[in-house]
Specification:
By secondary structure, this protein is mainly β. It is built from 2 helices and 27 strands.
């Protein structure tokens, strides 16, 4: 009997060891699968000079997909599930290069050298005045006539579901001083996060303010307007603007105004009280966290929920006021006014002319480094 019992213990021990080995091998395989997950690539079209342009697609373990082209480093689609598990694209965009070349309001693109506006298209730095290209009335918007949204970026597919885009903006491009070497890394995590890391170095002092200009509609149907989306922004202040959408220099309190989104609020509830709609910079509250949640967006119909995390001090909320129905998306949807919204993490507009705002000047020997995450779930 003792011998039989001892044999049972021995067999059970061997089974336990075998099971542990199987679990270890399985865990290693899962880990390797995650580490080795890489983007797929296909041709997206050709530039007017015949240069081919690529489209890169990242997919995570749960099936979320993000497609990005090296033309402008542009996010062309973000496909995520709703509360029923239905996968739909939640950003505006096109399925071919020609539509982007024909002109868009910066759909999904990397914006630079300076995201947002610089008043009168000019600034002074180190005793010298620089004249930029004026492409928004008298002002300079999103890097000028040929900003980073309209150039071809070098692309490198990496492990861990990453794509690295790089571009050298030469001294004098669009009127800016210094050779600016930029790297933007897109990462898709298995937590349904699209992470964007920006870095830049320069050989001469220059303003830098990089962002991404994706237009979100969490319903998955751009013809269903975003006015019923619920928005929260962790910001007690915003920067009022003049008629040309240039900040006055004041930081105003949002409390008691249509700009108060410190608690989730339906976007359409007060939008008519804001002349022209929302297109303003919110001053984010300071946080002890390195990358806090600064905004949330919820579509009550589909249950899709997006969180925005960033290291930046400002957030531009744009409610799609200038969409006018002249553009049609890849699914045939007409992009009307308020078909989507933008939440652009940034430093403040016109900071080079507003010394009271956080500085956007990058000097030689310094590294510009910011990060933003768009995290998707349902509720």
């Amino acid at each position: 009997m003792k011998k039989m019992f001892a044999n049972r213990i021995k067999i059970n021990s061997m089974l336990l060891i075998l099971l542990s080995a199987v679990m270890l091998v399985s865990a290693c395989q899962n880990k390797n699968t995650e580490v080795n997950r890489k983007a797929t690539v296909e041709e997206f079209g050709k530039m007017p000079d015949g240069t081919p342009v690529q489209l890169y697609t990242l997919e995570n373990a749960s099936g979320m997909q993000v497609s990005i082209t090296n033309y402008g480093g542009t996010v062309t689609s973000i496909v995520v599930p709703d509360k029923e598990g239905i996968m739909e694209n939640v950003v505006l965009g096109f399925d071919n290069l020609d539509d982007y070349l024909a002109g868009t309001p910066y759909f999904g693109a990397i914006i630079g050298r300076y995201g947002n506006r610089i008043g009168k298209a000019t600034f002074s730095l180190d005793g010298e005045t620089y004249e930029l290209n004026a492409n928004d009335g008298d002002n300079h918007l999103h890097g000028g006539n040929v900003g980073f949204d309209k150039v071809l970026w070098n692309a490198e597919i990496g492990d861990n579901n990453t794509i690295t885009f790089s571009y050298l903006s030469e001294d004098g491009e669009e009127g800016y001083p210094g050779n600016l070497d930029i790297t933007v890394v897109y990462t898709l995590t298995d937590a349904n996060e699209l992470k964007i890391d920006y870095e830049a170095v320069t050989d001469k002092a220059t303003p830098v303010n990089l962002t991404n200009h994706s237009y979100f509609n969490l319903s998955g149907d751009p013809e269903s307007l975003i006015l019923d989306h619920e928005l929260m922004m962790d910001a007690d202040g915003y920067t009022p603007v003049d008629a040309g959408l240039i900040p006055t220099g004041e930081i105003a309190e949002v409390e008691g105004t249509p700009f108060d989104f410190t608690e989730p609020y339906e976007i359409g509830a007060r939008i008519d009280d804001v002349e022209g709609g929302y297109d303003h910079n919110w001053v984010l509250n300071e946080s002890a966290e390195e990358m806090p949640v600064v905004a949330t967006l919820h579509d009550p119909q589909t249950g899709r929920f997006m969180e925005v995390l960033t290291t930046e001090p400002g957030l531009q909320f744009y409610s799609g006021n200038f969409l006018d129905g002249t553009l049609t998306g890849s699914d045939g949807s007409v992009y009307n006014k308020h078909a989507a919204l933008c939440l652009e993490t940034q430093h403040f507009p016109d900071s080079p002319n507003k010394p009271e705002f956080p500085s956007t000047i990058l000097n030689p020997g310094e590294t510009y480094s910011t990060s933003t995450i768009y995290r998707f779930s349902t509720k």
